[in-house]
């Protein structure tokens, strides 16, 4: 499995774990690379239905160790890049679609804001033994880079009773390959 795929799976798993917690503002199922019509979550007690989908996004090499293209990668079933560590610094930008639909305007606003806070909390990592760890150690850093809201060309622009955004996340990690 590539480091990019490991990072993507770690992010989706962390979002799903948060969604599974009691009182979560996220939908009960976190989707990956699914179309909008695939599933809207059942209404929560506030009458708001929620949708969260993670798109794989784009990645780029931000830094390369001199001679990285000459290093031979050693295959390993558990972590095919582990033997060499990281010769490439990768910045990967997956996108998260967040949609809150129905209920009252106040309920939608509250659900949307709570979901944004929860996504931020998942990405900001946790401190273990004095060190911050992001997405269970799968990445060196993760966080929200930007948020495109209504009027930004989203598929939900102009739809009544909907509050939506597309969140661009920045994941930084090293890899023995340029992906």
Explain what you see:
- The protein is an alpha+beta fold.
- The chain has a domain at about 5-70 and about 80-140.
- Helix content is about 20%, strand content about 35%.
- The strands form two sheets. The chain has a five-stranded mixed β-sheet. Strands 4-5 form a two-stranded antiparallel sheet.
- Strand 4 and strand 5 (about 130-135) form a beta hairpin.
- Helix 1 packs across helix 2.
- It is globular and about 55 Å long.
- It starts with a helix and ends with a strand.
* Global morphology: globular
The overall strand count is 7
Biggest sheet architecture: 5 strands, mixed
Low-confidence stretches: 73-77
The gyration radius over C-alpha positions equals: 18 Å
Mean pLDDT, all residues = 87
Compute the separation of the termini in Å.
11 Å
| SSE series | HEEEHEEEE
By DSSP (H or I, 4+ residues per run), the number of helices equals: 2
Strand order of the largest sheet: 1-2-3-7-6
Kindly estimate the percentage of residues that lie in beta strands according to DSSP.
25-35%
Relative helix content: 10-25%
Q: Name the structural class.
A: alpha+beta
């Amino acid at each position: 499995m590539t480091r990019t795929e490991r990072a993507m799976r770690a992010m989706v798993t962390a979002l799903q774990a948060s969604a599974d917690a009691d009182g979560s503002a996220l939908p009960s199922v976190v989707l990956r690379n699914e179309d909008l019509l695939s599933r809207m979550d059942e209404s929560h007690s506030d009458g708001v239905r929620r949708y969260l989908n993670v798109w794989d996004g784009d990645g780029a090499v931000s830094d390369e160790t001199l001679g990285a293209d000459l290093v031979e990668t050693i295959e390993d079933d558990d972590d095919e890049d582990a033997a060499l560590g990281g010769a490439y610094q990768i910045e990967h930008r997956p996108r998260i679609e967040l949609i809150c639909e129905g209920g009252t305007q106040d309920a939608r606003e509250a659900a949307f804001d709570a979901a944004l806070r929860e996504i931020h909390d998942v990405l900001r990592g946790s401190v273990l033994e004095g060190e911050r760890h992001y997405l269970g150690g799968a990445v060196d850093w993760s966080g929200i880079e930007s948020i495109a809201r209504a009027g930004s060309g989203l598929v939900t622009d102009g739809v009544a009773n909907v509050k939506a955004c597309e969140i661009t996340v920045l994941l930084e990690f090293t890899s023995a390959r340029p992906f």
